[in-house]
Amino acid sequence: MFVIETQHKKIPWRWVILLNIMVQARILVLFASGSMTFTMKKFIDSPAIINSIMSLDILFNLLIAAPCLYYSDRIWTRFGRRKPFIVVSFLMLGVVLLLLPLAASAIPMAVIVVLWLIFWDVGSTFDALVMEIIPPEQRGRSSAIGAWMFNGIIILSAVVIGGRFDDVFHSAGFTLSGEALIYWWGVACVIFCTLMFIFFVRERKPLGLPPPDHGGGVKGAFTSLFAEKALWPVYLLVFSTVLMQTGLGAIDPLLMTDQWGYSKQDMGTNIFVGGMINMLIVIPLIGVFADKMNRLTMFGIGVVGTLFFQIAYYVYIQFILPDRRPSIAEMILFGQMLSMAGQFSGIALQPLIFEYIPRDQMGTAQAGLNFVRSVTRMITLNGIGLWVTTYSKWFMPEGKYDYFSGYLFMILMNAIGCGFLLYFGRQVRRGIIQPLGVTEFDPVDETQAIPGNPAPKV
Amino acid sequence: MKRILHLSIFPAIGLLLLVASLWWGKRELRLRFQGEPANGQVVGMVLQRSDHADMLTEINTRLEFSLANGDRIEAAFRNYVMLTAGYHFAGNEESRSLTAEDLNPNSSAADAPLSATLRRTIDDAMRGDGARTRWALQRESRLTGDPKRVMKIDKTETVRGYFDMPVVPLVMEMKDGEIHFDGTRAGSPAPGTAVIRAVFDMSDPAAIEAKNGESMTRYEYLINGRPHTPAKKDGFLNAEPYTTEFIPVFSFEANGIQVARLSHIGRHGGPTLALRLFEKCKVYYDPEQPTEAVLIADAGKIDGDWLGWFSRYCEGVFGQWGSTTLIALNGLMFLGVSLITISLAIKPSKVIPVYY
Hints:
By secondary structure, chain A is mostly helical.
């Protein structure tokens, strides 16, 4: 059978390879969209507006992706339940990417970028469909294949594609801009994925589809997320960690190119060399520690380490480097330190969060966590854009932006996040916040059972 | 039949894309692999705008550095090669002339008359744009204890070339190592001069503070003696808006004749890292028609900064072959997938469904 299908207990490994090629092709499209910051910069100067447009992605995660995922669980068409969303999404993404380099002014360009964000989220059923095809027993090796391919496309993207944005090719009697090349290469990858789905992927109808939801509506669903007081501490924990993960967002590439004067090819070199060090040294090193260290200690090291390295990076550039401009090697060095600290906290975070979620509220908690994460990210992304704009207005010559000042905002958010975490930790120590996800699973030891109390039934 | 049609879609697209990539890069691939190699040089830079173009063929840079102790350094360069340089003392001491090695930022000579920082500042001001000159001056201004720190940089660029050209010919004549247009021919562009003077001054901290750190205190741009307002207050190659395309002009000798030709690769936002003005490059030309040529970037030697060299190298290779490579890669992706699907059709593997 050469057509890939859902609902199988075991599938050929060649299906897994095909699916992973498709996943990577979709990631390549996402990487191509990474150039949107530069496209926007051609027409829009303000980092606040650039970050605001890109932060709409988070809003559409809630307004578009979530409903699409919800309905894809509950519908059935002759083409399947997830495939229609994916094919429509890919077709529209193809059109949008085709038009993007042709936009001649800010408004059509912004409309195209927003359409891109919307239709990317329409296709959010992609991962669900891939996971529906790959059975759980084969997912481990599939992830390994995917990770291997992912490293390959990082190299391709950093070294070959990213630096082409400014190029202009005059060949075969035509002129092709590098910007168009990047987006149209993205279109080719989108076409590849679309054709793969149309010709080689088939959804089999599940035996029992969940019944359509009839109650509550959006308001009911929203209030139920916050009605459960037991989940509030978890939301606080996630709120704090998202504050601590505040980044420069879409203006990050502008710091390197516009402010520090590096080329987009230098940016690719930074990603390539940094990625290699990360893959060959940092990740294996973290793996060694991960097995030997207590999760909470790891999380603490990660949190404090991130804050420490952010401050160190800021102080080093602002007060030690005489021209306030790091070399690529210095950027890679600090980038790796921050990445290492980030991975420490990242590894520990997920299990830590679930220690505080009662098992019967996992679904609500997951939805609530997504909501809190999205809203916090949206606030911080817009916040950093406004911060950089205001700071530059006060302290920079007219028309110039100090994107690096965003690090001050990041440090501030990180410190606030740390404050909330300390509060969380203190409440845990006092017993006010309890690890309900752990305590309710503790088996009762017979020797410690209180006489007269019946052992709980399992 | 339906099955065969189904399975032939991906190989067909894959082959089509491979053919498209060969068609797209046909000329460059043919010249690269069948052409005659020659040593070339980037001899000019065309600044192509929507309706006209300027072409730089020579750049003269004059720099004057005022140091905190009152000393001055003057240097003049032609096409980034030093012509004269001198160190003038504030007192009655006689001025001292400097050699190119004395200004070399990578020099490791222990008895160098100028400090490494100062040599780097001179190099940054000579080659760099306004931002790089500002960084250099900022770097110097922080050496508060050093009496030889630079307080002021006065930079004058005199660019010779052809301005306001409606069309730039693809192939140009060379005479005595320079691009030459026959002035007797109607519509032939006339040579012109652009002079840009920029003064960066950090000697008055209060004035700098009042301008939020802006150290540029004077800026003038004249084309053929007439004032010109550029998109950005910067040097000739950096004052353009993003839409201007920078196209290198390269020259080489074929069959005893010097030829100059526009490169088929341009760049928005500034000249490419890989094809640097007045530096060497490799050229492959058609021996039967020497004006048909392609230039290949030469990243040069690794001069300490290997990451910078790596960027230049990648930009040279993929700036040249990136578009062809990406089209071909897409074709290979389709072909690779079609091989797997065909193998699945010929020899299917076992599938265990959840239900029948």
